[in-house]
Fold this protein.
Amino acid sequence: MIRINEKAWELVERSIRDADKLGWKIDHQPGDTWGIDAGVETNAGVQSGLRLAKISTAGLARVHYHLGDLFGNPWPYVETSCDQPYIGCYISQAANWQVDEEGARGMGSGPACIKALAEIFNAEGFSDPSDCAVLLLETNQLPNEQSRRRLAEVCGVRPDYFVLLAARTSSLAGSVQIASRSVETALHKLHQSEFDLKNIQSAVGVCPVAPPSGSDLVSMGKTNDVMLFGARVWLVVDNVNEAKLEKVIQQVPSSTSPAYGRPFLDILKESSGFYNIDPGLFAPAEVLCVHASSGKTFSAGKVDENRLRAALFGGSDEQ
């Protein structure tokens, strides 16, 4: 059994030693919880976002940043690769915890979710006996010590064994860590189709980075738009009937959702909350799956260039 909170905690400890380089601000007193501003009030950037992404996968994924081409423009992408995608990108990385405590609100992800939502994960056949908890929170305010203690209680760990890393959606660090979730979104969609994620041997995903903005609401729209319209995922699967695999892969792309087509921000404004949006929308634009035993490939979806261009540059080729 992989103690994923312990693995994430080790990464946090190493990262704290690099806090100055990462642009992190640490809030901690002996015996208290750990609060890390990794992009709320600080100017933490690319390296902070990459480290957050690495921690969120408990170190099971490789996450890196490269400059590519987008409509003739230099544009950054985040690539995530993992040989244990079920644990690293689905169990650990997914934003499963809608944190709504006094002084602590936002989308919670990372391995702490396993401890906070133990009943849900036990139903998945997964538990983590780690005595620590590592939570990433997408929020515009770093929770104080009192709020973090309540979250530590929810996770069932001592205060000094609880760490919360926070970044706002509109920060560069936030944009980078969100772009690292391409594989996670594909697995999320497959799980909705009752596909056994343990049959996925390896995964690679790439997503453009949404530019930071002065508004968390605007950035929530853009970070989702680049995923829905521009992310691409490659999977290697075995122990699955080829006909079944071909059928299920067709259901993965974001374009299969009835909510697909409009800017995400418009959809969000019309809904009564992020978690009330059709969950089938949260998926990459394109997926290709390789059957490990036969070598056959099955693909679905495509990068939606017009909508991606409109999301990032405010224009479209459509007449």
Notes: The first strand starts at residue 25 and ends at 27. The chain has a mean pLDDT of 94.
